[in-house]
Specification:
Largest sheet of chain A: none
Subcellular location (chain B): Nucleus
InterPro entries (chain B): bHLH_dom, HLH_DNA-bd_sf, PRE
Distance between the termini of chain B: 61 Å
Helix content of chain A: 55-70%
Strand content of chain B: under 5%
Keywords (chain B): Growth regulation, Nucleus, Transcription, Transcription regulation
Distance between the termini of chain A: 51 Å
Radius of gyration of chain B: 23 Å
Protein name (chain B): Transcription factor PRE5
Helix content of chain B: over 70%
Order of helices and strands of chain B: HHHHH
Oligomer: heterodimer
Structural class of chain B: mainly alpha
Pfam families (chain B): bHLH_ILI
Radius of gyration of chain A: 18 Å
Largest sheet of chain B: none
């Protein structure tokens, strides 16, 4: 079997890392007195959902992954915060614009599906297809972990 | 544009199509549905990508539902119930 020259690392942290980050986000929301005020339900739900995604991005490695960087940047834009990302030392890779992407030469049916995937994964628009695969794998793992954490929380809070 | 292909194959550092197939194969492992089926290795890449898209959409929907339920639960907790004590100890 042809093996990749570089091993692709898709490890995610344990469930409790996600849980701690999420609970911290929730407690921040609580401090903002979100839960006791008669706010519109929709606003509250949106805040919780945003807290879930942001805490997931932080738990999964913060700025070390392309999708989590894109997610945090998007969330910070919504808050009108100025976010500074530390300069990463990385190998020079060309930023390939969508028109001249090298992956245009792969089978077009693969590229169609990859395009749909790009819309779903945060930050996917600027990634080359092979990088997209790697980021997707990590994103899926983190998302399912986050869903597990939230499910546990809901189960624990539901009346018996 | 036609000479780009010959230029590209001469670069050893780029990911080749074989490695691409390998990556897609690895991605397959994370999809619960395909993993359960006993298929040969030759699952088409586009099918895998399609399943991935569906899976991600499902996960997003799950997050939405769970956020909704969490919001209701956190709002409707009685002050004296054991759940309130748990929340207080966890979130404060």
């Amino acid at each position: 079997m042809a093996s990749a020259d570089k091993t692709i690392n898709t490890d995610v942290p344990e469930k409790d890392v996600f849980a701690i980050h999420f609970l911290q986000s929730l407690s921040n929301l609580r401090i903002q007195n979100l839960f006791n005020s008669p706010d519109t339900t929709n606003y509250r739900v949106r805040k919780i959902k945003k807290a879930a995604y942001v805490s997931m991005a932080r738990a999964a490695g913060g700025t070390s992954r392309l999708w989590s960087r894109a997610l945090l940047r998007r969330a910070a834009k919504g808050n009108n915060k100025i976010v500074r990302f530390p300069r990463r030392k990385r190998k020079v890779t060309w930023k390939i614009s969508s028109k001249r992407r090298r992956s245009d030469q792969r089978a077009p049916v693969v590229e169609d599906a990859a395009e749909r995937l790009r819309n779903l994964v945060p930050g996917g628009g600027g990634m080359e297809t092979s990088k997209l695969m790697e980021e997707t794998a990590h994103y899926i793992k983190c998302l399912s972990m986050q869903v597990k954490v939230m499910q546990c929380l809901v189960d624990g809070l539901s009346p018996k | 544009m036609s000479n780009r292909r010959s230029r590209q194959s001469s670069r050893a550092s780029r990911i080749s199509d074989d490695q691409m197939i390998d990556l897609v194969g690895k991605l397959r492992q994370f999809l619960p549905e395909i993993r359960e089926r006993r298929r040969s290795e030759k699952v088409s890449a586009s099918k895998v990508l399609q399943e991935t898209c569906n899976y991600i959409r499902n996960l997003h929907r799950e997050v939405d539902n769970l956020s909704d339920r969490l919001s209701q639960l956190l709002d409707s907790v009685d002050e004296d119930s054991p759940e309130a004590a748990v929340i207080r100890s966890l979130l404060m």
